[in-house]
Amino acid sequence: MKVKSATLAAFVAPCLPVAAIGLPVVVHLPPYYAGTLGLPLATVGLLFSVVRLVDVPLDPLFGNLIDRTRGRWGRYRPWLAAGLLIMLAGVYLVFMAEPGLSPARGFTGLLTMYVGYSIILVSHTSWGAALSDDYHERSRIFGWWQTGNLAGLLLILLVPPLALWLAGSKLPAVGVHAMGWVILAALPLAGGLALAMVPERPAKSREHPTLADILNVARLPLLRRLLLIDLLANLAPGLAGALLIFFFEAARGYSAAESRLLLLPYFAAGMLSAPLWIQVAKRTSKHRAIMLALVAYAIALTATLAIPRGSFALAMVGFGLSGIPAVAPVFLLRAMLADLSDAETLRTGKDRTALFYAALVAVQKLGYALPVGLSYAVLAAIGFDPKLGQANSESALTGLVIMFVVPPVLLSLLAALAVRSWPIDATAQAKTAAALGS
């Protein structure tokens, strides 16, 4: 079943403000909390990692509850609305924090924001999986979804420099507060559009999942394999993103503003290349397209080491190229999970779509949380000081370069190996959909 473009546009609208949170959390907020707000670097790394780990066990519970929800408002719509309200409160606490912030208050704000984020992401992605049963159409649906995410990242990337220019200030707080207000304004508008315009299809089974399914879901070999692939594929760009500003500022001699601008071609290239990867997946398969993208990302990231110091234009092009393959695993793995969910529904008689996507959200959080905590801890151990910039010791700068390239490349290649020979292709999914009566 082909989904209308107008419906997809309404469906992906919440992606813009929700995805806009991801960039500040990885790139802007940790340095801001460690610098302007005065928290120690190690404390910031621990805080941003632990809060994601604490939130992870809630995801399967949310997924199970969504799968068990029945009513005239549907399964996904009421949960998406609830997540939007919770996230609004969390975004205000996190982005409007003031100097003197205690770790406990910082933890409370981050946890509130992530609880809302979790509910939104689980309900929204599982809703997307239910929009169509077609193997290739699911790539298109999640390609739109990822395009919306990258559009949100691009828009939020422009907010800090624009806010600083309008305010005539160089204070980091101006940019952080501006990002917060933009997200707070966009969340209810974009969320309301999806709630009002996107239809829901009935569940594929009448049997309700039980709480025991939360534990049993970890026993599914194919799901465990897909989660591992997603974790490895997320950790690779996550590590590079966590160290982006430090690498280009301290090891390559660019200003902090120039380093942040490098994200612009990265996300723009990813957004524009999503349709390309949809076509690659259609001509081959989703898992083969992912393999190709992961290998290409490893090559592109390694090539950034060849960019001469001070050549900002070349750095824009080089780092932008790495954004082209980075986009593919994110949305194609979610399309693959929809196919796997259908196969499990047919096998067990239970529709556990939201629970499966909740497991993926939990792993995604690990992929985002671990890079900040691990990389910041390693940098602290080798003596790197973000306040010194290029004045750091040669050994500290060398360690920074190694951390920026080597772990992401190895993780990408491991993910490519793990996705080989995935058993569900277009033919298998067509048989499953027919057996489910879709």
Give the topology, please.
Elements: H1 5-12, H2 15-19, H3 22-34, H4 41-55, H5 58-68, H6 77-95, H7 103-129, H8 135-167, H9 172-197, H10 212-216, H11 221-242, H12 244-251, H13 256-261, H14 263-283, H15 286-303, H16 312-348, H17 353-381, H18 394-418, H19 426-435
Helix pairs in contact: 1-8, 1-9, 3-4, 3-9, 4-7, 4-17, 5-7, 5-17, 6-7, 6-9, 7-17, 8-9, 8-14, 8-16, 11-16, 11-17, 11-18, 12-18, 14-15, 14-16, 15-16, 15-18, 16-17, 16-19
Can you tell me the CATH topology? Growth Hormone, Chain: A
Determine the mean pLDDT.
Answer: 88
In oligomeric terms, what are we looking at?
single chain
| Main sheet characteristics | none
Taken as a percent bin, the fraction of beta residues is: under 5%
The CATH level-2 architecture is identified as: Up-down Bundle
Helix fraction bin: over 70%
Keywords summarizing the entry:
single chain; globular; mainly alpha; 438 residues; Growth Hormone, Chain: A; 19 helices
How is this structure best described in words?
This protein has a single domain, classed as Growth Hormone, Chain: A. 55% of the residues are buried. Helix 1 packs across helix 8 and helix 4 packs across helix 7 (103-129). It is globular. Helices cover 77% and strands 0% of the residues. It has helices spanning 5-12, 15-19, 22-34, 41-55, 58-68, 77-95, 103-129, 135-167, 172-197, 212-216, 221-242, 244-251, 256-261, 263-283, 286-303, 312-348, 353-381, 394-418, 426-435. It contains 19 helices and no strands.
